[in-house]
Amino acid sequence: MRVTLFGTGYVGLVTGACLAEVGNQVCCVDIDAAKIARLNRGEIPIHEPGLEDMVRANRAAGRLNFTTDGRVGVAHGEILMIAVGTPPDEDGSADLSHVLAVARTIGRHLTDPALVVNKSTVPVGTTALVRETIAAELAARDVTIDFDVVSNPEFLKEGDAVKDCMRPDRIVIGADSAGAVELLKRLYAPFNRNHERIVTMDPRSAELTKYAANAMLATKISFMNEMANIAERVGADIEMVRRGIGSDPRIGHHFIYPGVGYGGSCFPKDVQALGRTAREHGYEPRILDAVEAVNRRQKDKLFELIAHHFGGRLSGRTIAVWGLAFKPNTDDMREAPSRALLQRLWEAGAKVRVYDPEAMDEARRIFGARADLALCDSAQAAVDGADALAVVTEWKAFWSPDFVALRERLREPVIFDGRNIYDPAQVEAAGLAYYGIGRGRSLRSG
Ligand code: UDX
Questions:
Q1: Which is the closest atom of ligand 1 to the Cα of 337?
Q2: What is the pLDDT of residues 292-325, one digit of tens each?
Q3: Mean pLDDT throughout 258-275?
Q4: Residue 442 has pLDDT above 60, yes or no
Q5: Which numbered atom of ligand 1 lies nearest the CA of 393?
Q6: Ligand 1 pocket, Cβ-based, cut-off 6 angstroms
Q7: Which residue owns the Cα nearest ligand 1 atom 16?
Q8: What burial class does residue 425 get, using C-beta atoms within 10 Å of its C-beta: 0-12 exposed, 13-18 middle, 19+ buried?
Q9: Taking the C-alpha atoms of 28, 32, 37 and 42 in order, what is their torsion angle to the nearest 10 degrees?
Q10: Could you tell me the distance, in angstroms and rounded to a whole number, from the CA of residue 336 to the centre of ligand 1?
Q11: d(CA 310, CA 290)
Q12: Stretch 164-191: mean pLDDT, rounded?
């Protein structure tokens, strides 16, 4: 099939590459000329396992093309997918200007019947708004062309996006017409083998499904972070509690890891946007508000442990920070807990020495050059000359350090483990003080 993707961010680029991989003719459109130029040179703007090879192979095979020209994109696709960003605007609601700009582009250039598929995360009712926007452009041109709009939210995890796209847990299609469902079923057939993954529903339910999924996952994390804060005070270890509750299949082992709060481009903005939608409809979303509030506070947790250990005197101290990305296997630092930690440390007069396996360029772009920031090229280098070590992102490379060597390198041998990846007894046996998240004993060890 001929498919056009509007937007070459995570969702658009991954979806476009995967659809080309299974034999479709794919055109990717983006208004960012620099980005399209890079893609046309074979450079991938994001770090996503498997993506670069897939983009290269499919470009070489002529199945994947990039352009800034909306008209070319509209002319190319029998299926037109919207995969542009919906960043939060000042009041927390999703900014639809990019989505509606694509809808206008489609309406302006459409010449043949097409199915418009919205993959961007959008408030309930946006499918209808996209439909109206396209219809208004067609009316302005005084033409009648058959088109349909469906909601087809994505559930890609950064770092696993290619896998999630090729082998999804579910494919949600929110459509008003059987014809649209049939067309998308054909498009997704290669990703829907062995058992049925397609769930069809009306567009409004599909739009809410996306928010409900992310809000539920964010709720699990904030709930566990709250339990961790209670565990810390009552002298319990949240890691034991996590195993104890996760073994109940109704709760499950996934997504109940306490830590330094959730970050990334989805959870923070989607929880806020859903809360905003609820309010607009006269409902006060108490759980969503609490999820958000707990997360904000949790992002300060590591700083508070560090401040506690040093008796509030951080001026002149140097803290090594391992991990900047909001989670492993990505270079994405949007809403990353590391940013809150660095900010608080700087405000307190401390210096930081940071290392991340993938996010160093991103850190350079975000922070620029500053005297209180050393961008180091290895985990070891970050620790050299530092007083203490804080682990913020649980990259595999950080899981088994040589604790004895760490004790020798750190001026004040102490580890602040923001992801509970170490065994406190092992760390302490090597002669370092240990603080984790929600591990009652850690406040005593300082
Ligand atoms: C998320 C959803 O998982 C995905 O389905 C949706 O489409 C987009 O948003 P992503 O933002 O890529 O994906 O990251 P995810 O792996 O879900 O992690 C989000 C954050 O939660 C990270 O900061 C992670 O460190 C944190 N997290 C996750 C925890 O703190 N504890 C956990 O148990 C799990």
A1: 23
A2: 999 999 999 999 999 999 999 999 999 999 999 9
A3: 96
A4: no
A5: 25
A6: 154-158, 214, 217, 221, 255-257, 259, 262-264, 266-267, 326-327
A7: 157
A8: exposed
A9: -50
A10: 11
A11: 30
A12: 97
pLDDT in tens, 89-104: 888 888 999 999 999 9
C-alpha to C-alpha distance for 45 and 38, rounded to whole angstroms: 8
- For the question of whether the overall pTM of this predicted structure is more than 0.90, the answer is yes
Query: Is the per-residue pLDDT at 441 higher than 70?
Result: no
CATH topology of domain 202-446: Rossmann fold (3.40.50)
In this structure, whether the domain defined by 2-200 belongs to CATH 3.40.50.720 is answered with yes
Q: Report ipTM (2 d.p.).
A: 0.89
* d(CA 164, ligand 1 centre) in Å: 13
Q: What is the pLDDT of residue 147?
A: 98
What are the start-end ranges of the H helices in 142-263?
161-166, 178-188, 203-234, 238-246
Whose C-alpha lies nearest to ligand 1, atom 26? Answer: 262
* Distance separating alpha carbons of residues 341 and 361, to the nearest angstrom: 19
Give the start-to-end residue ranges of the domains of the chain. 2-200, 202-446
Binding site members for NAD(+): 30, 35, 86, 121, 158, 269, 334
pLDDT tens figures, 12-24: 999 999 999 999 9
* Tokens standing for residue 47: 């770090």
Identical topology for domains 2-200 and 202-446:
yes
Q: Any catalytic annotation for residue 266?
A: yes
Comparing C-alpha atoms, which of 342, 422, 402 is closest to residue 439?
422
**172-196 mean pLDDT:** 97
Degrees to nearest 5, angle at CA 356 with 56 and 378: 105
Q: What is the DSSP string of 18-43?
A: HHHHTT-EEEEE-S-HHHHHHHHTT-
Q: Please tell me the distance between residue 214's alpha carbon and the centre of ligand 1 in angstroms.
A: 8
Q: Which two tokens stand for residue 366?
A: 């975000």
Going by pLDDT thresholds of 50, 70 and 90, the confidence category of residue 445 is very low
Q: From its phi and psi, is residue 40 left (phi > 0), alpha (psi between -120 and 50) or beta?
A: alpha
Residue type, 336: A
Ligand 1 geometric centre to CA of 175 (Å): 27
Active-site annotation holder among 18, 27, 165, 266: 266
Q: Which atom of ligand 1 lies closest to the CA of 213?
A: 5
Return the percentage of the chain with pLDDT > 70, whole number: 99
Residue nearest ligand 1's atom 9 by CA: 266
